[in-house]
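Example 3.2
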Amino acid sequence: MKTINSYQTIILILGLLLGCLNTHAATDCTAVTEISQIECESLLQLYHSTDGANWINNNGWNITNTPCSWFGVTCENNSVVSIIFFDFPQYNNNLVGTIPDFTSLLNLQVLNLEYNELTGEIPDFSNLPDLPALHLKNNKLTGSIPI
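Structure, written as tokens:
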């Protein structure tokens, strides 16, 4: 039976410690102060339902507790007002999956998720009266846009 010497033990411990330093803390919506907890949770639903870890640009998403600084998110008066993933010249952001329920984003004015790989039914956005700009083209969505 082979034993591990003290040098190998030190290397193993250092490797484990360095691995822990490279992990990212997930966003804690209860600690967010820029927007409401429910709006933060809605943004995280988008991240999780569209494979956010593999987006082309996911700067800040599910890492910081400052969602108003996350790529594509704009806030005004402590509320999310736009989510825009159209990033010229890179049209898509590699969102793959379904669009979550955005009913808690009551002040959302612009939602631009075009040029991605979104699938499933188009959600009902009729409860968002301030959403005049909805951009979903060039995805694989089904159904009609609920009014």
